[in-house]
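Troubleshooting entry. The earlier prediction with adenosine-5'-diphosphate gave an output that would not parse, so I re-checked the input for stray whitespace and re-submitted. Clean input:
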Amino acid sequence: MAEPHRVTRRAELIASLRSNVSPSKWSTWFSGVHIELTEQTLDVVAPSDFHSHWLQDHYRELIASLASDYLGTDVAVRYLIASPPLKEFEFPAIPVPPSSDRSPEAAVPDSSLERSSRYLDKYVFDNFVVGPSNRLALAAAMAVAEKPGQHYNPLFLYGGAGLGKTHLLYAIGHSALAIRPDTSIRCISSETFFNNFVDGIRRKRMDDFKHRYRTIDLLLLDDVQFFQGKEQVLEELFHTFNALHQYDKQIVLTCDRPPKDLGIEERLRSRFQWGLLADIGPPDVETRLAILRRYAGYAPKQIPDAVLDFIAQHITDNIRELEGALTKVTAFAALAQEPITLELAHEQLADLIPTPSGQPPTAAAIIAVVAASYGVSLTDMEGPSRREPLVTARQIAMYLCRTLTELSLPKIGKHLGGRDHSTVLHGVKKITRLIAADPQFAHRIADLSKKLGIT
Ligand code: ADP
Ligand code: MG
């Protein structure tokens, strides 16, 4: 194949050029220079006009003679200036975090531009809570952002869904730009890389594609597991990798698994392991709490510690879900104009948080789940109103408390706004009858039990 051959020739030419230049001159004059080969041309792409002239004054002959040695006498050498630095970020589609806006409606961004800037603000190192599960990954990411290409190249970040890989990837980009605004960065999902590649082939514009991906300082590529089984794009990634790595341009990759578990060719898998592998594990409970506290700080209303504890205890292995849970609770409270309480958290998160099997649900959890299912508020469950579906919801809660917990009739009554034991008994009997008579109703009760972790 012509392509790998050209890559080798290019590598040899660069090695030879390097051996003819002193190390200090090389790092001053050649480190920012990119050399591209096509069939008929050798392009020397310098970062500035000044660089280009200096190279031509001092190395024109050397470069010309190497070009004819390695590529033949009819190759033309062109001196070009790199286009202005790239700062391309693609914004991931994820739920909007709790924000400092007044109401939940206002927290939903109304334009994609606004959404972009929100993500820009959010995915930075300052917003990343560190704990034992992500300390190495964060340290490596910060080192790479500070000196791209010099520490760990590539940096390969891997871990399960929702653990902060994309967050760190973007943070590297933002921080590298803040430190050196002229850094040219491409920060994209593997899917976009793939789409650009396919597009390049379809339009016969592969040179554009190559130029786009091989003349940058920092390639941040998210979710490389996407490439598995896509042989052609893997081949292209291989060459992109080589082209960047050769000039000490930084590559950062994220993946949902370590390289050894990736179904890709060995030559690429081994390159992924050349630098540093850093895994991100599920956060421990202190880290989860710290993350929740950070988000709670943005919420318009104070969120009781008991609610944060409850969420941190129950949502253990996905930070996106952790945030989602908090958003759900705060948004519901704001919409329903109810205070944020533990009961409300139980009610809103019943789907996400099944009671561990073997343990009976609490009365509060039962009441919350029933209230949510019937669309009534917890205050009304305890209140005096006798309208439907409130009465039925209340009686179902009585029935479930009676059958799923050890609570006495008076205790159940107390949980439901201080009703007496005969009211509770009446409710339990009525629901028992309905279950026996109406299969659809029985099904609904079974569903509620399932939500409470009873199977
Ligand atoms: P992944 O790419 O690993 O699936 P993301 O980077 O998209 O996960 O993270 C999911 C959500 O959790 C994002 O909103 C991110 O900001 C947040 N997040 C992840 N890790 C942390 C952390 N250590 N501190 C604060 N927020 C975090
Ligand atoms: Mg991600």
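This one parsed fine. Residues 49-71 form the longest helix (23 residues).
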